[in-house]
Amino acid sequence: MNPIVYHIVSGQAFFSGVVLIILAALLSLRENRMARRVMVLSVLLGMILIAVSSTPLPWWFYSIAGVVTLVWVCSGFMKKWRRGAAYAVMGVWLVALMLEVPYHLTPGVEPDASRSLTVIGDSVTAGLGDEDTETWPRILQRKHGIAVQDLSHVGDTVASARKRVAATEIKSPLVLLEIGGNDILGSTTAAQFETKLDALLSELAAPSRQLVMLELPLPPFYHAYGRIQRDLARKHNVALVPKRVFLSIIAGGDATLDSIHLSQAGHLDMTEVVWGIIGSAYSSD
Q1: Measured distance CA(97)–CA(52) in Å, rounded
Q2: CA angle, 229 then 233 then 238, to 5°
């Protein structure tokens, strides 16, 4: 995967953009012409990186940050406001960093004595039907000795996965979801995605069950889908795994067949990544 594409889709571009805006604010306190030129370039590039990163901070926060940034830009024409506006813009974007950082930390999983796992996924998990390819749920079961109930299916969306779950007895108190990619790449609107994902998580949620969900890597300007996923993860007490974790797998040179679907090497890599997330639940292993 192209490093620039990875930087954007992983969400790391958001942090780069914020750093550039803070740098621009610092440069605005200087009086020399070169600093001003670098400041203009820095703030423009920073805003572009933040926009294309699809980082789903609340719209109200983006509105506040946008107003503060605009006031700071306008303060260039009024010297008496310049210093205060620069400090304000640095402050608001530092708050943005603090709001976003927790979503880039891998969550923990509580112990599970059943040594079982239910997996809900699409073709990234189910594979493309090649009998010679051992998918990561099967490798996980073979390699680590846990019972895996694999409900993944080629082409599944959140809606079809919900129907599959409704027709099946979920056997494990630990459920991992790798689902939603076909919704984003297909014709599912943000409103439909919210309704269907809420229904799926409601179907799965139970007092004695842990839900772990892989956050979706997002194309530029797909903020709404990420915001929905995060909001519903909070609502249903779902442990959300940062999108950089899954993206780190498909970014590997030989990990995919077509930049999305996993090769055999990719399934092996996915096994190790998933085990790194849930392995602590099976402490006796």
Answers
A1: 16
A2: 135
> What secondary structure does DSSP assign to 116-129, as a single string?
EEEEEE-HHHH-SS
CA atoms of 15 and 140, how far apart (whole Å): 34
Q: For residue 122, which of 148, 159, 174, 147 has the smallest C-alpha distance?
A: 159
Which amino acid makes up residue 67? V
Q: How far apart are CA 229 and CA 231, in angstroms?
A: 6
Q: Which residue has the tokens 């090649």?
A: 130
**122/114 Cα distance (integer angstroms):** 25
Q: Which two tokens stand for residue 90?
A: 């640095």
pTM strictly above 0.85: yes
Q: Which two tokens stand for residue 37?
A: 């030129």
Task: Give 124-160 pLDDT, tens digit per residue.
Answer: 999 987 778 899 999 999 999 999 999 999 999 999 9
Q: Cβ-count burial of 85 within 10 angstroms (0-12 exposed, 13-18 middle, 19+ buried)?
A: buried
Residues 197 and 214 sit within 8 Å (Cβ to Cβ) = no
Q: What DSSP letter does each residue of 76-118 carry, written as one string?
A: GG-HHHHHHHHHHHHHHHHHHHHHHGGGGSPPP----TT-EEE
Taking the C-alpha atoms of residue 68 and residue 93, their distance in angstroms, rounded to an integer, is 10
